Amino acid sequence: MGRDNETPEERRERLRQKELKHPASSIHGSVLSDLVGGLGWKGTGLMILLLIIGFIIYATFFR
């Protein structure tokens, strides 16, 4: 069955499958959520801790 003869349900399913192949699409979230999801809770906590320490060092020496 070609694209000219497909039903609306088939077209929706085809578009949904196409969107699932691209994980950076809007339905899956942003780059930050991908980063946090890939790091796990320990990696995310370490990243937040490093950002806080970096801010404290910046505030101490550059003000």
TrEMBL record:
Q: Where is the composition biased (Basic and acidic residues)?
A: 1-22
State the Pfam families in the record: DUF6366
Please name the InterPro entries in this protein's record.
DUF6366 (IPR045946)
Q: Does the keyword Membrane apply?
A: yes
The record's keywords, sorted A to Z, are: Membrane, Transmembrane, Transmembrane helix
**Annotated TM spans:** 39-61
Outline the segment boundaries, as ranges, of region: Disordered: 1-24
Q: The organism sits in which domain of life?
A: Bacteria
The protein here is known as DUF6366 family protein
Q: Which organism is it from?
A: Sporosarcina jeotgali
